[in-house]
Write a structure and sequence with these properties.
There is one protein chain. With 202 residues, the protein is an alpha+beta fold. The protein has a single domain, classed as 3-Layer(bba) Sandwich (Chalcone isomerase), CATH 3.50.70.10. Helix 3 runs antiparallel to helix 5 and helix 3 packs across helix 6. It comes from Undibacterium rivi.
């Protein structure tokens, strides 16, 4: 297998691939993810990144950043210090469709007690999407967990609303991608740096 073909094959698996021309940057379907980012005076490493598919369409690329590499969901949810999820849109999408995907992921992976406990934060998070008419290809959404502050959401570098203070709320967001019923099982594996066998057949 030639090198270019091999690179494409690895990229399809959603594995971390660093090109010699862009050392320290991971390219996922054209979306760039830095290998290291700085959040709340802490260097975070790219734990894994992959693509959210809907049917055969690429919707967005997402990367999970943690202080230390983790390969299981319990380890990620129990991780201390700052966290980041970066989402790069790979196609135009209405706020309704994007928000529905997020809220469905929360509903399917959050138990009743947590839904009651974080009702006000979930409602406010849902309203956040209504403030953005449409997400465009190339738009970047960042969800940062900052200890002592909460979950802070940015769109193209602009802060969106006030922080969501509870770590439980941040865990609920992470379970959108990492829960028992993730929005995309392949993306879950990629964010946990596991091979995604299904990509071999795409």
């Amino acid at each position: 297998m030639r090198w270019n073909q091999y690179k494409c094959w690895l990229a399809g698996l959603g594995l971390t691939l660093l090109s010699t021309a862009n050392a320290g940057t991971v390219d996922i379907a054209g979306a760039k993810f830095e290998d290291t980012v700085h959040v709340a005076n802490t260097d975070l490493k790219l734990n894994g990144a992959g693509i959210r598919y809907k049917a055969i369409f690429k919707v967005y690329a997402a990367g999970l950043y943690l202080k230390d590499k983790k390969n299981t969901v319990p380890e990620v949810l129990a991780s201390q210090g700052p966290r980041r999820v970066t989402i790069v849109m790979l196609r135009d999408l209405s706020n309704e469709d994007f928000g529905r995907g997020f809220m469905q992921g929360i509903q399917q992976n959050t138990d009743k007690a947590e839904k009651v406990k974080f009702t006000s934060q979930f409602l406010r998070f849902g309203e956040l999407f209504a403030s953005v008419p449409e997400l465009k290809k190339g738009d970047v959404m960042v969800n940062d967990w900052v200890p002592g502050v909460g979950t802070v959401v940015y769109l193209n570098g602009k802060k969106m609303g006030e922080p969501y203070p509870d770590i439980g709320f941040n865990n609920a967001l992470l379970r959108i991608w990492l829960g028992e019923k993730p929005v995309d099982s392949g993306l879950k594996k990629a964010m946990l740096a596991e091979p995604d066998d299904r990509s071999m057949y795409r």
